[in-house]
Design goal:
2 strands; two-stranded antiparallel sheet; 3% strand; 237 residues; mainly alpha; transmembrane; membrane; transmembrane helix
C-alpha cells in the first residue's frame, strides 16, 4: 500500500515538470498503479519502482518549447494537449461568432429599424463588458499565479490570450471598415442605401466582424480556462 508521502513525492515530481490540474491527477493515478504493479511483480522498493516509471514516462514528460516564440518549456504531453485545447477553444469561438452573425442578419430581416438598433445598443454594451472582462480576467490570472507561486505552471496556451486580444483590438481600429456595422447590416439587407453600400463593403464588414469577435471570444475562453486551472492547482498546493 502506497503511503501519503510517497503519493506526495509523485505529485511534486509532476509539479516540477509543470504538470497540473486534471492532467496531473490522471498521470499520477497511472504512475501509482504502475509503481504498485512493479513493486508486486519485481519485489522492488518504492524508490526503484518510481525510477522505472520515470523512464517509462520520459518521452511524454520531455520538456519542449511551448511555441516557437517562447523560452518557456512544457512537457511533450502538455504541449500536445494544449494544441488540442486551443483548437477546441478556437472552434467554439468560431461557432459562436458565426451564430451571432446569423442572428444579426435574421434580426435585420425580421425587425423594424428602431427595434433592431435598440437591440444592438444592448449588444454593444455586452461586447464592451466582454472586453473589460478579458482585461479583468488577465489581472486575476496574474494575481493567482503570484499568490500560488506557480511560476506559470499551468498557463501553457500555444497563443497567449492577451496577445490575441491586443492584436485584435489594434487591427479593429486600424482596418478601414464602417464602424456602425449594425446599421450597415440593416441598411444593406433592407435596401435602404443601395447606392452607398456595395456588396464588397458589406461582406468585408461582416467578415471583419466575424474574425474580430472570434478572436475576442478565443481570448475570453482561454483566460477563463486558465483561471479554472489555477483554481485547481491552488487546492493541490
Amino acid at each position: 500500500m502506497m503511503t501519503f508521502f510517497q503519493e506526495r513525492e509523485i505529485e511534486k515530481y509532476l509539479l516540477s515538470k509543470k504538470i497540473s490540474g486534471k492532467l496531473l491527477t490522471e498521470i499520477q493515478d497511472h504512475m501509482i498503479s504502475q509503481i504498485s504493479e512493479i513493486q508486486k511483480n519485481e519485489n522492488l522498493n518504492f524508490e526503484n519502482a518510481f525510477e522505472e516509471v520515470k523512464i517509462y514516462w520520459s518521452a511524454d514528460l520531455n520538456m519542449v518549447k511551448k511555441n516557437p516564440f517562447s523560452r518557456q518549456k512544457i512537457t511533450s504531453i502538455a504541449y500536445e494537449i494544449d494544441k488540442i485545447n486551443n483548437k477546441s477553444t478556437l472552434l467554439k469561438s468560431i461557432l459562436i461568432a458565426f451564430l451571432f452573425i446569423c442572428v444579426e442578419i435574421i434580426l435585420a430581416f425580421a425587425l423594424n429599424e428602431q427595434w433592431y438598433l435598440n437591440i444592438n445598443k444592448f449588444i454593444k454594451i455586452i461586447v464592451f463588458c466582454l472586453l473589460l472582462e478579458i482585461i479583468v480576467m488577465f489581472i486575476r490570472q496574474k494575481n493567482m499565479e503570484n499568490k500560488n507561486n506557480t511560476g506559470n505552471i499551468v498557463i501553457n496556451n500555444f497563443v497567449h490570450p492577451l496577445f490575441v486580444f491586443f492584436i485584435t483590438l489594434i487591427a479593429d481600429n486600424l482596418i478601414e471598415i464602417p464602424k456602425n456595422s449594425f446599421a450597415l447590416i440593416y441598411d444593406y439587407i433592407n435596401s435602404i442605401s443601395q447606392t452607398e453600400i456595395s456588396i464588397f463593403i458589406f461582406f468585408k464588414s461582416i467578415f471583419a466582424g466575424f474574425v474580430f469577435l472570434t478572436l475576442y471570444l478565443f481570448s475570453y475562453f482561454s483566460l477563463k480556462g486558465n483561471i479554472k486551472k489555477l483554481s485547481q492547482i491552488k487546492k493541490i498546493l
